[in-house]
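One example copied in:
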Amino acid sequence: MVLRNFERRLEHLVEGTFARVFKTGLNPIEIGRRIVREIDANQSVAVDGALAVPNHYWVYISTADYERFQEVETPLTNELIEAARTHIADESYRVLGPVSVVLVEAAEYPEGTLQVQAQWREGATTPTTAALVMETGERFTIDDGPFTVGRLPDCSLILSDENVSRHHAVIQRAPGGWTLTDHGSTNGTTVNGTPINEAQLQSGDHIVFGATPATFEAR
């Protein structure tokens, strides 16, 4: 059976770099399925007939699972947010603000169990901090000035990937958030699998510089 889009987004956490974290207890696909179920269960018809859904999701998990997830909390949360956004887009749902997911420790829950609660949060607030999170979990803070990515030592983020150009791309603050611009690199830059010249970034976006993946995070 072909996996649903949101499940595809979570597979690499279960089978990839962080596979050992998910050998027991909960794994991201189970959490993603429960979030999707909660999204579908909370549809509301807007005045124009569109289907609106909540945009914030509390995920209550056992202490054992919560402690195990601490090592990968940022990439896990970003993947769950993107899974929710993917499902919302696939179903043409409307949200009132940015999609967010928060893991909450629930000491009374047995390991492997969870509960998801949906919440409506109207309006968007402009994020004030941003970072790139690598597959290793390493974080690089993006300050107010241009954040350059490339192979040369004068770049903000220096990558040894031969597929990355010397001055590959730049991330800069823009009204309402941050933009990513490719500097005519040889092997290109993608955001969520789509090649870009310039793109407005959203928290949870998956970026690939040449052959090096990273996740954009804004708060």
In short: The chain has a mean pLDDT of 86. The CA atoms of residues 75 and 137 lie 7 Å apart.
